[in-house]
Amino acid sequence: MDNYWPEFIAVALVHLLAVASPGPDFAVMLRQALTQSRRVALLSAVGVGSGILVHVTYSLLGIGLVIQQSLVLFSILKVVGALYLTWIAIHCLRARAGGIHVATAHTVPQSGFAGWRLGFLTNALNPKATLFFVSLFSVVISPGTPVVLQAGYGLYMAVVTALWFMMVAVFFTLPGVRRSFSRFGYWLDRIMGGVLLLLAGQLLLSTVSGDGATDDPGRVSGIRG
């Protein structure tokens, strides 16, 4: 076991840098924390962490490498991911002017499951996450590492991801933080919608140009958390 500590530390550092990077997960979690209850936001964070397990599972099974190397399969994944981000963005952009969209006592709450599902699908349908985990399991993690230990790495990354976004949820559900955002809650919805649309557009453009599916697996791609 001692021989695998350097590998685990490398995995932990790469993952920490990746999960802290801005991207769809962070954008969705920010909006959840500001527009829903703390409980729902925390469940969304758990959903994001649960999505990591999807990527870990297909990476362990070797399916991730097949997806990455297949232009058709990877393009389909990109399109589905882009459509999902667009769907979320439309909900943000439909915010009505004059309303305060930061959570209040009168906010219509999501169910806990709906919050979890939003976080889960946002992460699970992120094609950049596919590139990241395929690269991670191809380069950073040795093929000789026992599968049980590789699964342990995956579980660690899922838990750390969930904990990171739970901290995001707790911070942005603090009353003082929410009050600071309450004056421009409408514009926050618009900004989040615009960011998500840009990310969706980036995915669609990369699909048209054919980028990503044939990327060198020797490069650990950045997953945007």
Features:
225 residues, mainly alpha, 74% helix, membrane, LeuE-type, transmembrane, transmembrane helix
Helix amount: over 70%
* Separation, N- and C-terminal Cα atoms: 30 Å
- Listing every helix as H and every strand as E from the N terminus to the C terminus, the arrangement reads HHHHHHHHHH
Structural class: mainly alpha
Strand residue percentage? under 5%
Low-confidence stretches: none
Number of helices: 10
Radius of gyration computed on alpha carbons: 18 Å
State mean pLDDT (0 to 100 scale).
82
Q: How many discrete structural domains?
A: 1
Total number of β-strand segments?
Answer: 0
Q: Please give the largest β-sheet.
A: none
General form:
globular
InterPro entries: LeuE-type
Main location: membrane
GO cellular component, one term: plasma membrane
Organism: Marinobacter profundi
Write the layout of secondary structure elements.
Layout: H1 5-19, H2 24-35, H3 38-60, H4 63-69, H5 71-93, H6 112-124, H7 127-140, H8 147-172, H9 175-182, H10 185-209
Please outline what is shown here.
This protein has 225 residues and is mainly α.
Task: Describe it.
The chain crosses the membrane at residues 6-28, 40-65, 71-90, 129-149, 155-174, 186-205. This protein has 225 residues and is mainly alpha-helical. The protein has one domain (25-209). It is 74% helix and 0% strand. It contains ten helices and no strands. 44% of the residues are buried.
